[in-house]
Design brief:
Order of helices and strands: HHEEEEHEEEEHEHHHEEEHH
Strand content: 15-25%
Structural class: alpha+beta
Largest sheet: 9 strands, mixed
Oligomer: single chain
Number of helices: 9
Number of strands: 12
Shape: elongated
Radius of gyration: 22 Å
Length: 294
């Protein structure tokens, strides 16, 4: 608190030296700049942040006008004193620019906004994250919508922790098995078909899905793009957009393959109540929106 008050006092002064400190970047990330025109006196105010990462999936959620990116997920860093003003204007639908790109979050988009206090060097700072719950949350926002539409972006720390628990049984496939369990949990909540309660099946399902035309991978598909995601702690990012008929056909086919190949029963490490991740009440925490900066 004392440091925050000192920062506020420094930024409130108007000397050239303090002005230079005010606009000094906190990190080497791209500068995100937002300009608000004052209708009364014609003057403009400039608000700045540092763009940490963003993810856009125009096939799942509208991209917007040409050369305007409407991110499904975005995170930026500001000083503690500048956080409220920048976010307030960004949430109002004002456009921000960085590296010749324009970013916009419409007021009616339904993004959820989270803040995390961090230290950037010797300065108290704030990381703000905005994301679309309907694409990221484990529990579907619209449970009656047929098929599956979601972005799968597991954090590396979560995968590493789960892989450590599974290493004895899965060896080099432990991280894949952890990702497969989470991926299967997403599918489980978006289909009426029961999934085989076995991590080996979840791993098979996860790998097979990546060969399907309804799954896109960041860096390999022009309809799924972003920047900085690895730096802020995400593992491979996937986009799923599949109708109910194709999803059910896929699950039935993979179930048949699994039973044909199964020689002995596996060890069940998932609760037997068909809820593969049984705590839906803290979806943002499960999906690492309180991420650590790399």
């Amino acid at each position: 608190p004392g440091g925050a008050r000192r920062l506020s006092r420094r930024m409130a002064t108007t000397t050239p030296e303090s002005s230079a400190r005010r606009h000094r970047p906190l990190t080497s990330f791209p500068r995100l700049r937002l300009v608000r025109e004052d209708r009364k006196d014609g003057k403009s105010r400039v608000f700045e942040a540092e763009l940490l990462a963003y993810l856009a999936a125009p096939e799942l959620w509208q991209l917007g006008a040409a050369r305007t990116i409407r991110p499904a997920w975005i995170a930026y860093l500001t000083s503690e004193g500048a956080a409220r003003a920048f976010t307030s204007n960004f949430r109002r639908g004002l456009k921000a620019t960085a590296d010749l790109q324009t970013y916009e979050i419409p007021r009616t988009a339904g993004h959820r906004w989270l803040t995390t206090r961090v230290r950037a060097g010797d300065v108290e700072a704030v990381v703000t994250t905005a994301y679309l719950p309907e694409l990221f949350h484990l529990e579907p926002t619209f449970p009656d919508r047929p098929g599956a539409r979601f972005l799968f972006a597991p954090p590396r720390w979560w995968l590493a922790a789960q892989a450590e628990e599974l290493a004895e049984d899965f060896g080099d496939d432990a991280a894949g098995a952890a990702a497969g369990a989470l991926f299967a949990a997403y599918l489980d909540r978006r289909t009426h078909l029961p999934l085989v309660n076995d991590l080996r099946f979840h791993l098979q399902l996860y790998r097979a899905a990546q060969e399907e035309p309804w799954l896109s991978r960041l860096g390999e598909d022009p309809d799924l793009f972003g920047d900085g995601l690895e730096a802020v702690g995400f593992d491979d990012v996937l986009a799923v957009d599949v109708g109910a008929r194709d999803l059910n056909r896929f699950i039935r086919r993979q179930t048949a393959i699994f039973h044909q190949q199964e020689i002995q029963n596996g060890t069940h490490r998932i609760p037997a109540d068909r809820r593969l991740l049984p705590d839906p009440g803290h979806a943002p925490e499960q999906l690492c929106f309180d991420f650590a900066l790399a």
